[in-house]
Amino acid sequence: MDKKTIVVIGNGMVGHRFCEKIVGKTDKFNIMVFGDEPRRAYDRVHLSDYVKKKDVDDLYLCKSDWYVRQNIKLYLNDPVKSINRTTKTIQSSNGVVIEYDFLVLATGSKAFVPNIPGVEKEGVFVYRTIEDLDLIKSYSVSVHQGVVLGGGLLGLEAAKAMMDLGIPSVAVIEAAPRLMPRQIDRGGSEILRRRLEQFGLSVYADRRAYRIEGDGSIRELRFDDGSVIKADMLIISAGICPRDELARECGIDVGERGGIVVDEYMQTSDPSVFAIGECALFEDTIYGLVAPGYEMADVAAARICEEGKIFRRFDMSTRLKLVGVEVASFGDPFMEAPYARTIVFEDKNDGIYKRLNVSNDGKYLLGGILVGDARDYNLLLQTVNNRLELPDSPGDLIMHTKEPTGTADGAGLSALPDNALICSCEGVTKGEICRAVMEAGCENADSVRQCTKAGSGCGGCMPMVKDLVAAAMKQQGKYIRNVICEHFSLSRQELYDLIKIHRLESYDEVLDALGHGDGCEVCKPLISSLLASIWNDMILRKGNDTAQDSNDRFLANIQKGGTYSVVPRIPGGEITPDKLVVIGEVAKKYGLYTKITGAQRVDMFGAYLDDLPLIWEELIAAGFESGHAYGKALRTVKSCVGSTWCRFGLHDSVSFAIQIEERYRGLRAPHKIKSAVSGCIRECAEAQSKDFGIIATEKGWNLYVCGNGGGKPQHALLLAADVDSETCIRYIDRFLMFYIRTADPLTRTATWLNKMEGGIEYLRNVVVNDSLGMAAQWEAEMEDRARDYRCEWKAAVEDPEIRKRFSHFVNAPGEKDPTVKFEEMRGQKRAADWTLV
Amino acid sequence: METIATTEWLAACRVEDAVKNGGVCVRHGNEQIALFYFTRRNEWYATQNECPHRRQMALSRGMLGSVGEEPKIACPFHKKTFSLSSGECLSGGECAIKTYPVKVENGLVYIGLDD
User: Which residues does the UniProt record annotate as the domain Rieske (chain B) (predicted)?
Assistant: First the structure.
């Protein structure tokens, strides 16, 4: 037994990080960990998430067997009672006595509870642990007015938790004249207060609690100015108190106001005893953030392993989201004249406050504050930390006259030195990220995260990591093309041209001629879509059926449980009563759930694979055809009722929508395409949220392009104004062909335009002014395509080879999948929920 | 001492009933087995038809492919991929799927069921 023993007291975030660091370096120590909470280390930073989640599993920092696998003995629910430095032993509450060679105190902090009369009353809580939160949760059920004492970071977190618990009225009390006095200045604080009040939080600053009133349980809170606030629950979050009792009792030096004194190696006055995290006092400072705690864990582990690493005064820059408001401070946030010049931008309308502190010569950024919009945080922090020279008008750094770009510009990044800290949670530098790309072969941000841990903490640095990866790849000449997958070293655009030039007509031909390997779920649907765009063949012929995405392969949309939904085309949303009756009859006959879609059609859900051809036959007999709801294709051209009925309508929007839908139906594209026609400026068809939308004017039509609804809404831009119907269609022909030829896979028109150099001006030049000289060819191709259009459902039911595939069991044709389950809801059926293992 | 595993062979379908470069679903009592004819590689594979991710009877409608030399199947629901040779989940997180031996004799495809 010549292994030395490390005893760690405390199993919080920092104590856990210390264990990770040690076992990452060596296995030559016996490690014992004592924790006083009943559970293993969890993420205290995201404690307020626990309110909304069912269980604690998402918060744990490691799997349940991690400690066992690392040969670490973990004693939970067993606080250490005493330390004997003479015998170098500790004794736990359960009577375990262990001899140590190194002792690491990671005891953290507890909530500071001011000595206010009445704090012992029921309904008064602190906010530190999961147990605290459980108590708060169960008490909160009948609470109407919740109050938090303390308007700092933790206090606002606690207020958020109260709001998430559904407490109808929540107030925050701060003794100082403003919120977050340690992080932000008065101006920032004021904006923060306004924003929080908008979210329904009441804020009372400059109030000191004097007494907690109530009969057994809290009823109200009295202040020293005589005012009173009603409260049937109170969370005290007035600061933290380092837990230094154990050290104090065994004679280790502690600070006057608490905290275990440590040197730059995290060693206490007894060199075999270390202190890390919120219990440690370094240069008269307690660091109450997790990043410096992690750094301390790293330094202590290095010292024990005899590596030279020291702790330096830590940057307290931080970026947080408090009750939905972004708050960040960096460098020295408060520095002002005569030591610095300040630039302040304040927007009370949108609730944004930004402050930069610039050196007197205007050359360097020294610190600053961001409230309400912290997207520039990373770049500004790097500018401070690396003493990057500022541009001539540094104010431009925080003024955004254009749309947000979301990431730092490339030039700013390349100016950073290699030791610039990109991920402060995990302490990862620019150099380490670049090496992960250049040497370890990482080719995207996710693999860099796995390799370096950058971005695995708060995730705020991920946009920078992405940009760094792109830049490093470019530098290596690696990132020249957007190649599709391991089977094709070509971009979609290159494949488009090569398929055409070589006249390749099936997936296998393309793979043989241009790719290698056996294909995959990325290149197969992509090439199938290209083949459909270029040759306009029935998509299930020539062996291309198995290269189609599942929905295309079965010409229907697969739904929960493995049944399909069927959407017949209803051009422009116009349908006769007879056809409506047919839909109803078919749905009844095959037991389908029916719903009106967002695109003015009727969707029928719950069709068995075996029933699809039968359903289509009945629909086709009544004059319906496929609506291509399953394809990356034109979906619907929505319309308002237009001039035929509407007293405001300028033109017949329905007829034009039908004409357009019939011209482009079945057109395969990089992604789905949606369209609409509105009969007047009231825009009832919402054409400006479509890939291409048309709005009637006094003189003709306005054509808008590249709009998007969905998750990332974007208004369409005007491509051409007051054009006649024929011109409008010619422009759409060109627009769509240009999109199909040049867009990246699975890129909607909005994103395609956003990435296009020259933007809408360039697009207008290509489409309207024919700057590429392609207009005539594109129009002719589109004309041919429209002429050769055939309904895919009809082709499928008429072809016995294709039809044969609509059967669940190959050895029991006609027998339906017996595992499909439905439930009943509002007089119709619904799919049974996923059954999870 | 040696035990000899007894394999029962289920006659699944004729070669021409299988889908080229795709899958079909074979019923065996209450069980569903996905049978794949990877024509491009001239290989046959069989696995459970249920994707373990959301427990959907769907792998036979999935898409065949390869990663390196490894043949794989992608589930049509959420594109989880599984090795056809080992059954291992290649997109992480899911448990492995069961695989079965396949043989072709006189134009008939058989799936091996171990007892």
Answer: 10-111
